[in-house]
Amino acid sequence: MPFVHVAPRRNSITPDKQRRFIATLAATGIVSQAALSIGASVEALYKLRHRVGAEDFARAWDAAVERGYSRLEDCALERAIAGEERPVVSRGKVVATWTHHNTGLLMFLLRARRPEKYGAVRVGDLREGHPVYEALKVRWEAERAAADAARADGARASLRAKLLGMREAVLREGALRGEVPGGAGFSPAGDSLPPADGEE
Prior knowledge:
Oligomer: single chain
Helix content: 55-70%
Strand order of the largest sheet: 1-2
Strand content: 5-15%
C-alpha cells in the first residue's frame, strides 16, 4: 500500500509514482534508473522510504530489489552457460567471432547456488554431515587405523626382540655352565617363541 501524503505538494511522490517506481525497480534492479523514470531524486525516495507510515513502501522496495537481483542472477547464469561472442579482428576488420566462457563467473555462480559442493570451506562449516567433513573423517579414521596397526606391529617386534635377547642370554649362561639345551635342569625362558609375522 503506497504512502499517502497528508498535505501533498507539487513535487510529492504520489501513490501512482510510488507504484511506477517499484515496477521499474523490479524490472531493472537500479534505484537511480527507477527514480529517473518518475522524475524524482534518489534522496527524496530514500527519505520517503524511512518515513513513519511508509513501511509498506519500504517492503515493496526491498521485494523489488530482490526481484531485480533474481533477474541479474538469471542474466549471469545465461551468460555463463551460453558465453558471449567476441570478435576476431584482422587488419582492422572483424573476420570472425568466438564464444568466450567466463570461468570466474561460472565458479562464482556454482559457489553461490551450490555452496555445499563448490563453496569455499571455512572451519566453522565443517560439521558432521558436511561432505568435506565426512571425507576428512574417513581419511582420518583410515590414518588412525594404520597408525594403530603400525604401533601394534612395532610393539610386537620390540617384545619379540627382547624375548630373543633373553633366550640368547639364557643359552649363553647355560653353555657356560656346561648344560645342554633340552637336558635335565635346562629350562630357558622363551625357548619356544611364537613365530614372527610372516614366519611359519
